[in-house]
Write a structure and sequence with these properties.
By secondary structure, the chain is of the alpha/beta class. It has helices at residues 3-13, 46-49, 58-70, 81-92, 105-124, 143-148, 152-155, 173-179, 203-216, 238-241, 267-270, 286-300, 304-325, 347-356, 379-397; strands at 27-29, 32-34, 40-43, 98-102, 130-134, 165-168, 184-189, 192-193, 199-200, 219-223, 247-250, 261-265, 329-335, 338-343, 359-360, 362-363, 368-371. The chain binds pyridoxal-5'-phosphate (PLP).
Length: 398
């Protein structure tokens, strides 16, 4: 099949929910993907921060193959070893004591929202259910999570939304303090807003948010779906920002490409869930958890995390140097291998120009380029992207 034929069939058979690049991807290897015509592309999108080990990582492939042959699925009516082992690994390396597994980011946030409401209800009775979230945030596309998302474009024409949410400006403590009332159960935020254009939370702000939450027994929930699993150079971004949440959600990189989500919490919060209060048929199935274990193992024992930290520093320095040399670059933001570059031109143009030169990048908003490559990205790969951006920006000013 050619890319053109595929494009036509996609228009015919798929609901038209996506704006896609004029590119088909047939296979991948490491930091490269290949289209149906065999052309190679350097991948700085990584399936939107999902393929943390790149494409076809031998340990991940082997773990999936072995587990597929052993047992793919059984339901949560029974115990399975990969699920318990992955939970143990996440608990051993985080603030959390307990894990609930599901299949996506939105579902992880659904679990977090339900857990927060339940915790608050058990402790304070009905009426204390509100969740405060941030403007410009992104938390998913289910009804609860699109309501939690502080962006009109995600909510438009889906009204009525779920009751019990309010929105405040990111990094603004005063506004947050005013919005926390005796109805507030939790605050939900991304330590770095990803889809919203790569905005990093201030450390001082997060510390104050933590204090506010502790004082009022309001749960602090971090959506680390994009920032987790080594993306920022530590396993979770909160480790670098000096603040621990009560609940944290994961997905994207957790399975290295196999769909899996997780909601993590401290014991005192997690006990609000009892048998029957929440569930998922696929959640934590052996195949997905075996993939999650392989990812954790590669990050922690295979030194991918250390590599990601070094590459993150190198990349962020390179992007800052690029900003010094090109006036079209307005700002560089991010942490580790989650980097954003604000440009005084249409981000879509840069995405297309990169594609034409064999590099995949992605936009987050009209004027922000987002880079979320596999964590196995090399200096040579980074240099190639920086050279390509320099070419595109030079042409722009000429
Ligand atoms: C991608 C993302 C989600 C939604 O995850 P899905 O798997 O698409 O449901 C939620 N929150 C953040 C921060 C994300 O980046």
């Amino acid at each position: 099949m050619t890319t053109e034929e595929l494009k036509q069939d996609a228009a015919r058979y798929l609901m038209q929910t996506y704006t896609r690049q004029p590119l088909s991807i047939g296979r991948g290897s490491g930091t490269r993907v290949y289209d149906l015509e065999g052309r190679e592309y350097l991948d700085f999108v990584g399936g939107i921060a999902v393929n943390v080990l790149g494409h076809g990582h031998p340990d991940l492939v082997q773990a999936i193959q072995r587990q597929a042959a052993e047992l793919i699925h059984t339901s949560n009516l029974y115990y399975t070893e990969p699920q318990v082992k992955l939970a143990q690994t996440l608990v051993d390396h985080s603030f959390a004591d307990k894990v609930f597994f599901c299949n996506s980011g939105a579902e992880a946030n659904e679990a977090a929202i339900k857990l927060a409401r339940r915790y608050s209800h058990d402790k304070y009775g009905a009426g204390r259910f509100e969740i405060v979230t941030m403007k410009n945030s992104f938390h998913g596309r289910t009804f609860a999570t699109l309501t939690a998302t502080g962006q009109d474009k995600v909510q438009k024409d889906y009204e009525p939304l779920l009751p019990g949410f309010c929105y405040v400006a990111f990094n603004n403590l005063e506004e947050l303090e005013r919005s926390v009332t005796d109805k507030t159960a939790a605050i939900l935020l991304e330590p770095i807003q990803g889809e919203g254009g790569v905005h990093v939370a201030d450390r001082a702000y997060l510390r104050q948010v933590r204090d506010l939450c502790s004082k009022r027994d309001v749960l602090l929930m971090f959506d680390e779906i994009q920032t987790g699993m080594g993306r920022t150079g530590t396993l979770f971004a909160y480790e670098q920002l000096g603040v621990q949440p009560d609940i944290m959600t994961l997905a994207k990189g957790l399975g290295g490409g196999v769909p899996i989500g997780a909601c993590l919490a401290t014991d005192s919060v997690a006990k609000a869930f009892s048998p029957g209060s929440h569930a998922s048929t696929f959640g934590g199935n052996p195949l997905a958890c075996a993939a999650g274990l392989a990812v954790c193992h590669a990050l922690l024992d295979g030194h991918v995390l250390d590599h990601a930290r070094r590459m993150g520093e190198y990349f962020s320095q390179g992007l800052s140097d690029c900003k010094e040399r090109h006036r079209v670059v307005k700002e560089v933001r991010g942490l580790g291998l989650l980097q954003g570059m604000e440009v005084a031109m249409d981000a879509k143009t840069v995405v297309s120009e990169c594609l034409a030169r064999g590099i995949l990048i992605n936009g987050a908003g009209e004027h922000v380029l987002r880079f979320v490559p596999p964590l196995i990205i090399t200096q040579l790969d980074i240099d190639r992207l920086l050279d390509t951006l320099a070419q595109i920006f030079s042409k722009q000013t000429a």
